[in-house]
Amino acid sequence: MGPTTQGSPAGRPERPPGPAADLPADHCLETDFGPADLPRLRVALGAYATRLGLAGRRRNALLLSANELADNAIRHAGGGGLLRLYRRGALVCCRVSDSGPGFDLSVIPDRPPELGSTTGWGLWTVRQLTDGLEIAPGSGPRPRGAVVTCSVRLVYPAC
């Protein structure tokens, strides 16, 4: 997983916290993840979300949504992906890229899935909890996968 002192469980090189050359100046976290990384990913996301200014319910909404996006990439799109957390103005954004078959917004139900349904809950929940949800195809010469970005607006206390 990303910025830790223990190294990546998959043996990949670490990406240090802080800006990367191709990301916005207020980029905060970029990390690969796989099935074993979800607990550590949630801890890192919590710390970075706080660093970006989220607290309380807004922070929890982002954490739950990021967990759902990562879990979907693991279960439906090749076993893992790349997560980026960054701030864009008053929005804290979580972007998950995967190498699965891809999809679009039409797969997200408008209403809660049936209680016994085994699919549909993750993205439906993300849509309910966040202030924005974007889905785009992967990039490259032979695009594969999806790039899913959810965002939570920072709320500033009244003066």
Question: How would you summarize the topology of this molecule?
Answer:
Blueprint (H helix, E strand, L loop, with lengths): L26 E7 L4 H14 L4 H21 L4 E8 L2 E7 L23 H9 L2 E6 L8 E8 L6
Antiparallel strand pairs: 1-2, 2-3, 3-5, 4-5
Helix pairs in contact: 1-2, 2-3
Mean pLDDT: 81
Distance, first to last CA? 40 Å
- What's the shape? globular
Helix content: 25-40%
Estimated share of beta-strand residues: 15-25%
Q: Radius of gyration, rounded? A: 15 Å
Largest sheet, described in full?
Answer: 5 strands, antiparallel
Query: Treating each run of at least 4 consecutive H or I residues as one helix, how many helices?
Result: 3
Task: Count the beta strands.
Answer: 5
Order of helices and strands: EHHEEHEE
Oligomer: single chain
What would you call the structural class? alpha+beta
Describe the 3D structure.
The chain is of the alpha+beta class. The protein is built from three helices and five strands; from the N terminus they run βααββαββ. It has helices spanning 38-51, 56-76, 121-129; strands at 27-33, 81-88, 91-97, 132-137, 146-153. It has a five-stranded antiparallel sheet, covered by helices on one side. Helix 1 (38-51) runs antiparallel to helix 2 and helix 2 runs antiparallel to helix 3 (121-129). It is globular and about 40 Å long. The relative contact order is 0.16.
Short description:
The chain has 159 residues and is an alpha+beta fold.
